[in-house]
Structure formats: C-alpha cells, structure tokens
Design brief:
The complex is a heterodimer of chains A (about 375) and B (about 525). With about 375 residues, chain A is mainly alpha-helical. Chain A contains 13 helices and four strands. In chain A, the strands form two sheets. A two-stranded antiparallel ribbon of chain A has the order 1-4. In chain A, strands 2-3 form a two-stranded antiparallel ribbon. In chain A, helix 5 packs antiparallel against helix 10. The radius of gyration of chain A is 23 Å and the shape is globular. Chain B is built from 17 helices and 20 strands. In chain B, about 50% of the residues are buried. The chains are: A mainly alpha (about 375), B alpha/beta (about 525). Chains A and B meet through strand 1, helix 8 and helix 9 of A and strand 1, strand 4 and helix 10 of B.
Chain lengths: ~375, ~525
C-alpha cells in the first residue's frame, strides 16, 4: 500500500479554483499563527487589512483612491511583463525600465511643462517615458538577438544601472539639475503636481476616478486582444514556444523579439508615467518594487491578462491593507504583507502542482488463476 | 505449469481517463524471444515501463520466476534482473563506454579502478559484441551506443532484457548483427522482449508474439504458425492490404534541382558534401542513409533555414539558393522534418492544433487579426482525413501521442498545396495504419504532379514507395538507383560507403538531369 503521483489529464476550472482558494486560505492561516504569536487577534487584523479600514470610515473614498494609485502601476507593469514572458523572454528588468520611464516623464514636465498646455505635457510625458523605457529594455533585446546573450542577467544588471542614475540625479546639487528644488540646500526632488497631473473625474460623492485607471484598463484590454487575436500576438506565442518552428514558418524571429521586448518595456514606461503623473514628484523609491512584484503577479496569473488585473487587485489589497492595519496594530510591521505574499505564492505554486498531478492510492488487483 | 522468467497477470494502468493498459497477460520463458506488437498508443511502452519500474501498475500483478514482486523503481527492476534498452539512449556523452557502465554499478566504490576496462571487455566478448571500453560515447556511432546499452544491462546481471524499438536506428547489416547477438543471448538462457513495428523482423527473430491493441491484450501466437498478414489483422483489428502502391505518373521536367551542394552542420564541419540531385514532378525520390549523414542539414538548407556553403539550388528554373524561408515557402516548397523528439521543427508544441495549422499561413488573413476560423476548418479536415485522435481542435499539440503529432504536421504541409514536398521520416515511429495513411497521401500528391523528396529509414518501404533512391554516406552521394531494380543489400553497402555507384553510368553523373534547367540557364548566360 502506498501513494504515487499520477498525471492528470484535465483539471476542470472549478477544481482549479478550489485549489487556488484553498492555497490562499492556508497562507492566511499560516499568517494567523504568526499573528497569534505576536499577540494580535488575526480575525480583527485580517478584517482591518481586507477592508483596508474603509468600513465606517468617513474618508473611505480617499483610501480607495490611494489604493488605485498603487494598483495602476502594478497591474500595468505585470501586463507589460506578461508580453515578454509569453515569448519566454525573461524580462526581470521592470524596475530599471520603470525608473528610466519615470526620469523621462519628469524631464518632460520640467522642460516643457511650464510652456505647453497641460494635456500636451501629459501626452508628451507618456510618449517620452514609453520611448526611453522601451529603448532601455531593448538593450537586452538587441544583445540577445545579435549575440545570443542571456537576457535575465542583462535586464537584472540594468536595474541597478537605472537605480544609480536616479540616485545620482537625486543627490547631486548642481545648476543643470532641474529635477531638484532650487530653494532647498539639501538635495530634494522638486514637486511638480501643479504643472502636470492626470485629470480626475468625479463619480458621485467625493470619489474621483483618475484618468490613469481608465487608461490602464484600456491598455489591459488591448494587450489581451493583441496576444490572443492578432498576427503579432500569434508570432509572440510561436517564438516563445519554439524558435525553430518560428524560423521555419518564415517569421523574422529577431524582429519579433525586438518588437515585443520594446513593447513590453514601453508599457512599463507608461506605467511609470502614470505613477509620476499622479504622484507629482520623483523619488528614489518611485517604483514601489512593481518591477519585482509584477513578475510574481504575471506568473500567479499564468500570463492571462484578466487574471493579472485580478491578482494585482488582491496583492494591492494585501499591501495597502497591511499599511492601514499597521496603524491599529503597531506591533505588526507593514512588511507582514510581504511575508503573506510569499506564503501565498509558494502555496499557489503547490496548488498548481495538484492541478497537473494527483496522488493515487496503489491498489492490488484481484489475482487470476492460471 | 511452466516456469516463466517474467509474467504479468491482468496488469492495468490508467492515466487520468485514458486507459493505457487494461488486463495485460504476458509471459516469457527463459531462452525465449517474445515480440511485442501493437500500433502507436496501444500501450507497449507503458507496459514495458511498468516492468522496468518507471510506472506503477494500478492493478494486476507481475511475477518474476513464479514469484509475485512489486517493482517500485528502476532500481528494483535492476535487482530483479530486468534490464531495459530504451529507444533513446541513456548515456553520458563525455564518458567512456566502461565509465558509463561503471557509474550505475552498486558498490563501485569511490575510485575508478583500472580493471573495469578488462571486466567490461570480457563480458562484451562473451556475447560476441565489438566494443572498445575506452571509447567515449560522443565518438560512437548509433549502433555502438546501442551495443553499449545492451552490454550495460548484461553487466548488471539482467536475465530479462527488454528492447524498445532497437532496430529503428540501424542499417540492414547492423540489424543482422544485433539479431545474432540476441540469438546468442537466447542460447545463454536470457528472456528477451523486443518491441518493433517491423513485421519482417518479428517473423525473423521472435519465438512468440504478443499483440496489444488500444491498451488491450489481444492474443499471443507462435511465430512459426503465423504470417505477417495475420499479425497485421490482429494488430489493426481488420484486414489490411500490405502492399504499398507505386503509381506511375508522367514525369515533368525537373522541379527542384540541387547541384554540388555543400552545407555545414552546427559545429561548422561539412555535413553535406557536394550533393547533386533533382526531383521531377510526379516522382518520389528517396534519400537513404544512416541517421546523421547530412539528411537534416539537407532538408534545412532546402527550406532556407540553413545557409549554403556553396552549390546551386534551382526551383523551376529560378535560383532559390540564399532565399529566406518565407520566400521559399511562397514558391510552394514544403518541408517537414520529423526529428527524434517529433516536436523540434515545424510545430509549436504548447499551442493548439488550430494554431499549428496556421503556422505558415497566418499572414494570409486580411487585417491585423489571425483567422482562427480557417485554422479550425483546416484542423477539422486534417483530423478527419488522417483520423487524428484528439479530444478537440483546441488541444495543445504536445498532449497528442507521437503518431498523431506527426499526422498534424504532415497533414498541414499537404494541405498547403505545395509543388515540392520535402519530408524526412514522416512515418518515424508510426504504426502500420498511420504509416499507410501517410504513404497514400504522398502518392495522391505524386499523382497530382508534386515532386517529393522522401528521407526515410525503412529500406523495404523506400523500395516499394519511391521511384528512385539516392544514397548518402557521411554527406556524400553514393549513387542514385531505381527503387524497383535495387536490392536491400546493395543499398546497405552504399549506406556504409562500401559501394560507390556515382560513376555507374558513363557520361551521366548521378543526380544530374539530362534536361536540367541549370545547364540551360548557364547556356543562356554564356
């Protein structure tokens, strides 16, 4: 008697759903154990966290608006990364591309913002961020196509290059450095929310919907259609699945790779422009780690765009909620969310195993005579 | 009751909802060769994997020397004296023959001892193998690697030896040598199970034949009292005509001409060396040769996937050397190469059958979108025409069994309506039914005036199907012979390079057409 692993032919969607939900619940259970040890009532903590403290709060609309500010860059970055991942191009340079995009966006605001109408500034911001981030991401793409270098290493390293460029700008007081406040003696990034900010639309009550949110959903829909229905999206899948077959089908594989990597990085740049355009100021932690979290989100969602939006929403609830909860439960650090996120990722991957395999009991059959 | 070396009773194995084996009763005596026969997907490999401890049966029992055993791992199988020679060799390329054997040995100790070479040479000699224990695997030919695999299981003391399609990669002469070895092993009292698709081999080597069909045990018969025809009927479940048609078609002028082609392989050494041939419309030109003699490089070069070092390639009088794959595709030259893993070139394994149908023509749809409707239509018709076994048109290709994957690939190539078909190993590992379906398809195309280059393995088939056969040996042409005039022996000698027929006809070098369009072109230029 014993167990052995058997491959599953097909896992119906509801079984899959049950497995994933169970994985999340177990992760929350593990978190609860940790909370109990810290002397915190897990139910109350989770309640605060998942409601983000909005229940019975007079400024709940504000919480939700802040929540969306975190959601937009993450969802957009994860969507952008999924484009490259679909082609099995391991772009882990989201951080660097995001930073380069935000520098470009801020550059546009400071140079052209004061003289151009706001709408034009915003458009230019987005375009500049997309172009710069796209080109920055293409470095790894070009080298891969030309010399077959490993994109994982390159994009990773380029993250640090970008980060130090941003640090340099942020710490160097000089006449040319228009990114910083002139009045301050210490190097501080200049606020530009009065020059350029994405418009918001009042939707009844005090809640205002930022244009970025609408655009993010629109881009999500476009990427979904792009990957699923267009010829270019088809090429992305084939190149990712079998480079040999793509060449055999007459695709210009180098071109497909470059195009897709540029698009992926450019959309990350767009996410950066949205972030900069709503935050109104640069900072050395402008990315909020979306380049990293985006990777997790893209894989948890299995590169399926609607799922990416759903997972992004959940991860943001964890992150934002834990910050809110930290106000009530001072002994629990807001990085508790990171731990929980790790546990969820691990357990969802474990659940994934059970969607493809199952444990079966070894039976002994009846013996025949003969 | 006679004592069996190994016996299974009611062995059953399911994968999800698929029943791979159900109630299999099989037995082999010592000193007996049992052939296991069945179509693709009939469960032969599953059964053997259960015997060698890779899978665990869901129910049923395995008896070794009359005692019920439970085989939980390949290690257990080894202890019970069951050795398996896999179709794909499990060897470390950079190790010598002896070290490959040594590393799997228990109690080998921490150091490599000098005497291992002697020990292994001894056992090889005992069974009449030619094996140099110091030779590295990467320098070995396919047949040597196989010999090594067999010596390995013998060295581990296997009394029951399972060979999974051992003849698929060998030449006629090599097969004969292998069979001599098997006979000697049989005399030594080993029990041997051999899996093969080739009926003539079954008739030649086995004592009894066990037949499976769709995972079910059908029957076991004495080889002496049966015939190829009967075996086929058992296997397929109905009567089938075993003759391959070779329709006579009026030939056109050369469609594809290749002259003095030199192509390098991935390592930069010459893989195809001065090859010339031509294909006319309405003719099938076979390419015979031991695996790895430049077939792959030749096919890739024709499809534009591999650069030519030198030489000419002319299609209907137009030069196509150096054109990109897309341009060659548009000229109506279809290439399908079935690699050993079946998925290497030509298919996107994680994508659906529908998507794979569109691989070469997704561009033709108007606008920016892919026309999946057309892909689905194509998928449906290929599934119906070639009886592909699949749950739906949206199933990822890698979930299909090997034979069905091949049908999808070949089906798509033919659907595109090409005027030249280059097909390499289209029936590799396919069962009789599917193979004949593919021969038929090729013949239909031939009758339509398509020129076909058929890179094959089975000489019997090539001699029956092809009009002419070009023989390659280490990238060089050894001659072009008429399929109905040649013999297997002649082809075998040419394949090993012992017979060169390139100068057989004086004044007409092999592979150059009398009415070549290349010469005409040059004449014009002069």
């Amino acid at each position: 008697m014993g167990f052995h692993i058997v491959k599953r032919e097909n896992c119906p969607w509801w079984q899959r759903l049950i497995l994933y939900v169970a994985a999340v619940l177990i992760a929350l259970g593990l978190g609860a154990v940790v909370l109990l040890f810290m002397g915190v009532d897990p139910i109350e903590y989770y309640y605060q966290m998942f409601t983000m403290g909005t229940v019975g709060n007079r400024i709940a609309y504000k919480t939700f608006m802040n929540y969306l500010k975190e959601f937009v860059p993450l969802a957009l970055t994860a969507t952008a990364l999924s484009l490259a991942f679909k082609m099995r191009f391991w772009n882990i340079g989201g951080e660097g591309q995001f930073i380069m995009g935000s520098i470009a966006a801020a550059f546009v605001v400071f140079r052209f913002g004061p003289v151009l109408p706001m709408w034009l500034t915003l458009v230019l911001m987005c375009l500049a961020a997309m172009l710069v981030a796209g080109l920055y991401g293409s470095i790894a793409g070009v080298l891969k196509v030309k010399f077959g270098t490993n994109e994982t290493l390159l994009t990773l390293m380029l993250n640090y290059v970008a980060l130090y460029v941003l640090n340099f700008i942020g710490e160097t007081k000089a006449d040319w450095n228009f990114f910083l406040q002139e009045q301050s003696a210490r190097p501080v990034f200049k606020n530009f929310s009065s020059i350029a900010a994405f418009p918001q639309f009042a939707l009844g009550g005090k809640f205002q919907l930022n244009l970025c949110v609408i655009l993010t959903f629109a881009v999500g829909a476009l990427v979904f259609i792009y990957l699923k229905y267009t010829k270019q999206g088809y090429e992305v899948s084939v190149v990712g699945d079998s480079l040999g077959s793509a060449r055999y089908a007459g695709m210009k594989t180098g071109w497909v790779i470059l195009r897709t990597v540029f698009l992926s990085a450019a959309l990350i740049g767009l996410a950066a422009a949205f972030k900069v355009g709503t935050a109104g100021v640069l900072s050395t932690s402008i990315t909020d780690d979306v380049g990293w979290t985006g990777i997790t989100v893209a894989w948890l969602a299995q590169l399926y765009t609607p799922m990416i939006f759903l997972v992004s929403a959940l991860i943001c609830v964890l992150q934002h909620g834990s910050m809110v909860a930290a106000a009530t439960f001072s002994q629990v650090d807001s990085s508790f969310a990171n731990m929980l996120q790790g546990a969820i990722l691990f357990l969802v991957l474990a659940a994934d195993f059970y969607t493809r395999f199952r444990l079966a009991r070894v039976k002994k059959g009846e013996k025949k005579n003969g | 009751m006679a004592q069996y070396a190994i016996e299974t009773r009611g062995l059953t194995k399911t994968f999800g909802s698929v029943v791979a084996n159900s109630g299999i009763d099989l037995n082999v005596k010592e000193g007996e060769i049992l052939a296991l026969l069945g179509e693709n997907g009939s469960g032969k490999t599953t059964l053997m994997n259960m015997l060698s401890g890779i899978y665990k049966p869901d129910s049923g029992s395995i008896l070794v020397n009359g005692e019920e055993v439970s085989i939980n791992s390949p290690e257990d199988a080894k202890k019970l004296g069951i050795g398996m020679v896999h179709q794909h060799f499990k060897l470390v390329d950079t190790f010598s023959a002896a070290d490959n054997i040594w590393m799997g040995k228990e109690k080998a100790g921490l150091t490599l001892k000098k005497k291992r070479y002697g020990e292994i040479a001894e056992i090889a000699e005992k069974f009449g193998f030619e094996l140099d224990p110091k030779k590295k695997v990467c320098h070995m030919a396919v047949s040597e690697k196989q010999t090594l695999e067999i010596v390995k299981v013998l060295y581990y003391g296997a009394k029951i030896i399972i060979l999974d399609e051992p003849t698929a990669v060998l030449t006629v002469q090599e097969i004969r040598r292998l069979f001599n070895v098997l006979r000697r092993m049989k005399e030594e009292g080993h029990a041997i199970i051999i899996i093969t698709h080739k009926l003539n081999e079954v008739m030649e080597i086995s004592d009894r034949v066990t037949i499976l069909r769709k995972g079910e045990y059908i029957t076991t018969v004495d080889t002496a009292g049966t015939s190829e025809k009967e075996l086929t009927e058992w296997m397929v479940g109905r009567k089938i005509d075993l003759n391959i048609r070779r329709p006579l078609v009026e030939k056109t002028r050369p469609l594809l001409e290749v002259r003095d082609l030199v192509i390098e392989n991935d390592e930069g050494s010459v893989a195809v060396d001065g090859v010339s041939f031509y294909i006319r419309g309405g003719e099938i030109l076979g390419v015979a040769g031991i695996a790895g003699c430049g077939q792959k490089e030749l096919c890739e070069a024709i499809a534009g996937l591999r650069p030519l070092k030198s030489g000419q390639m002319v299609h209907k009088g137009d030069n196509i050397a150096g054109l990109p794959p897309k341009a060659i595709l548009e000229k109506g030259i279809a290439m399908s190469f079935i690699p050993e893993d079946r998925l290497g070139i030509g298919l996107a394994p994680s994508m659906s059958i529908t998507d794979n149908m569109l691989l070469k023509k997704y561009r033709d749809a108007r606008g920016p979108f892919v026309d999946r409707k057309e892909g689905r239509r194509d998928a449906q018709s290929v599934i119906a025409d070639l009886s592909v076994v699949t749950p739906s048109t949206e199933t990822p290709v890698r979930r299909l069994s090997g034979g069905n994957v091949q049908k999808v690939l070949v089906g798509r190539e033919i659907k595109a309506g090409p005027n030249v078909i280059v097909t390499a190993y289209p029936v590799r590992g396919l069962d009789i039914n599917s193979s004949y379906a593919i021969y038929d398809i090729l013949n239909v195309q031939k009758e339509k005036g398509v020129g076909i280059l058929f890179v094959g393995e089975d000489l019997d088939v090539m001699m029956a199907l092809c009009d002419k056969i070009l023989v390659l040996c280490h990238g060089r042409v050894m001659g072009v012979v008429h399929a109905h005039k040649t013999t297997k022996e002649e082809l075998g000698l040419m394949m090993t390079g012992s017979l060169d027929l390139t100068e057989k006809y004086e004044g007409k070098p092999a592979g150059i057409a009398k009415d070549s369009l290349i010469d005409e072109q040059e004449g014009k230029e002069a």
